[in-house]
Amino acid sequence: MNPSASFAPDAPWRIDRSRLATLAPRPAHDWDIEIVDETGSTNADLIERLRAQPRDNAPADPHAPVVRVAYSQTSGRGRRGRAWLAEPGNALLMSVGYVLRRPIEGLSGLSLAIGVAVLDALARLPLSPSARPALKWPNDVLLDDGKLAGILIETAWTGPGATAVVIGIGINLHGAEHLAAQVDDANRQAASAVPGTAPASLARAWPGANLTDTLAALLNAIDAALPRFETEGFKPFRQRWTDAHAYAGREVVLLDQGQEITRGVASGVDDSGHLLIDAPEGPRAVATGELSLRLAKERP
């Protein structure tokens, strides 16, 4: 691919700032939204920025979120060393930096709450009536059993009354088949990578999928979700997450470094976002950590 052609200023897939302001007026007006052609990692960019800023452990009037969007990432990443790849215009690659007025121990379930926000964003878009997005614990959004979106939350700093977080979100819009081949190749070259769910694209349910409308829907959903999580934690998101649980009532395997540590029937999540499994040895509540979840038939 010709890099100069990829980032042509008149490329039809570029985000339309005027339309964005119409569709997401409050975030577009009040938030700091940066859109760049290319960077290493939007998460890394915002972590560096937040760490360089003065820290206020319990801001009475917290700063508005800062958003960084890139059309291409050269070092995009997901959990457990997996590659996150996308061609310019084919995926929404973004991060949100925000100081939550919660200590780090109060962030349990945040990735699940953001997953619910992604579902709420998708509900604002003109998807096919047959589309059924679902949530896979702890941080994936599925479409027809393929991975549509991933969430990666990292901490820039923490204090007694506040934590600066960076919420990375990647949503595939087009090119799932080509992307699957790229991801397979990249993960084969990463010795630490554990294979993940095959990619899916939003265009499967919305042929006109575009970055502007998707970003606007996501900003509106996050604008509603962050203050609610800050005040109430994961509890108010639990039912919505449970209703969209992709593996509810199905036998699953929990993996650590590719090794099975338990299996059982997935029964939901608790108020802290811990996965609930009815295992042979009895009920288990599993914290996120660095574990991976698969359907039992997907056992490597």
Textual characterization of the structure:
This protein has helices spanning 3-6, 17-23, 25-30, 42-52, 110-123, 176-189, 211-232, 238-243, and strands spanning 32-39, 66-73, 91-100, 133-136, 140-143, 146-158, 163-172, 251-256, 259-269, 275-279, 282-286, 292-295. With 300 residues, the chain is an alpha+beta fold. The chain has two domains: 3-243, 2-Layer Sandwich (BirA Bifunctional Protein, domain 2), CATH 3.30.930; 251-298, SH3 type barrels. Strands 1-2-3-7-6-5-4 form a seven-stranded mixed beta sheet, with helices on both faces. The chain has a five-stranded antiparallel beta sheet with strand order 11-10-9-8-12. The protein starts with a helix and ends in a 5-residue tail after the last strand. Residues 184-194 have low confidence and may be disordered.
Give the total of beta strands: 12
For the biggest sheet, the summary is: 7 strands, mixed
And the CATH topology of the largest domain? BirA Bifunctional Protein, domain 2
Report strand %. Answer: 25-35%
The CATH class of the largest domain turns out to be Alpha Beta
Output the number of helix runs. Answer: 8
Structural domain count: 2
- Distance between the first and last residues' Cα: 34 Å
- Helix coverage percent of residues? 25-40%
Radius of gyration: 19 Å
Arithmetic mean of pLDDT: 87
Unreliable stretches, pLDDT < 50, 5 or more residues?
Answer: 184-194
Shape: globular
Look at the structure and name the CATH superfamily of the largest domain: Bira Bifunctional Protein, Domain 2
Order of strands, main sheet, comes to: 1-2-3-7-6-5-4
CATH architecture of the largest domain: 2-Layer Sandwich
Order of helices and strands: HHHEHEEHEEEEHHHEEEEE
Main structural class: alpha+beta
Organism: Caballeronia grimmiae
GO cellular component, one term: cytoplasm
EC number: 6.3.4.15
Pfam families: BPL_C, BPL_LplA_LipB
